[in-house]
Q: What sequence folds into this?
C-alpha cells in the first residue's frame, strides 16, 4: 500500500518532465528535462546526498508548472513541499538566490554563465546587496543551494550522457516524506 502511494506521488511529480519537458529551456541549447537529467547525473557523480540529487532532478520543475507568483524556484519548491522535506525543497527554493549570490561574491562566476543565464539574472533581481548577501549566507541550506547552482550551470551541454529518468524513480520514491 505504501509503495503504491509513493509510486503515485512519483508519477505526479515526474509527469511534467515526461509531458512537457522537451520544451526549450529559456534560450539554452537543451530541453528542460535534458537539463534536469544532466544536473541530477552530475550531482550523483559528485556523490551528493540523495536529497541533493533529487533536488537537482527537480530544481526547474517550476518552469513546467505554469506561471504564478514568486518565480519558478518558489513554484517548484511549494509544489514539491507537499511530498518532500526541506532537504529537497530548500535548495530548489534557493537556487536562483545562489546564482545571484555567486555573481555578487565572484565576478568571474558571472562571466562563466551562459548568455541566457546572464539575461535571466537581470530579471531575477541582479546582484545582492550586503544585507541580502548576509541573509543568504545564514540560510540553513545555502551550501546545498550553491552546489545545486553549480550543477545547474554545468547541465547545459547538448547531447551530454545522462541517466534515464526512470533510473531516478527509486531515489525519488525513497525521499518522499523524508
A:
Amino acid at each position: 500500500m505504501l509503495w503504491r502511494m509513493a509510486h503515485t506521488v512519483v508519477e505526479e511529480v515526474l509527469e511534467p518532465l515526461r509531458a512537457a519537458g522537451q520544451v526549450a529551456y529559456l534560450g539554452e541549447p537543451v530541453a528542460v528535462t535534458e537539463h534536469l537529467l544532466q544536473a541530477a547525473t552530475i550531482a550523483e557523480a559528485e556523490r551528493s546526498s540523495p536529497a541533493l540529487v533529487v533536488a537537482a532532478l527537480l530544481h526547474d520543475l517550476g518552469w513546467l508548472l505554469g506561471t504564478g507568483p514568486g518565480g519558478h524556484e518558489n513554484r517548484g519548491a511549494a509544489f514539491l513541499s507537499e511530498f518532500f522535506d526541506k532537504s529537497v525543497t530548500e535548495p530548489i527554493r534557493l537556487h536562483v538566490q545562489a546564482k545571484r549570490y555567486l555573481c555578487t561574491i565572484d565576478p568571474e562566476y558571472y562571466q562563466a554563465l551562459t548568455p541566457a543565464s546572464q539575461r535571466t539574472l537581470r530579471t531575477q533581481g541582479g546582484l545582492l546587496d550586503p544585507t541580502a548577501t548576509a541573509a543568504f549566507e545564514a540560510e540553513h541550506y545555502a551550501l546545498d543551494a550553491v552546489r545545486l547552482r553549480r550543477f545547474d550551470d554545468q547541465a547545459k551541454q547538448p547531447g551530454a550522457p545522462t541517466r534515464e529518468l526512470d533510473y531516478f524513480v527509486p531515489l525519488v520514491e525513497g525521499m518522499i516524506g523524508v
Observations:
- Residues 86-105 form the longest helix (20 residues).
- The chain has one domain: 2-17+30-175.
- The mean pLDDT is 91.
- The CA atoms of residues 100 and 122 lie 9 Å apart.
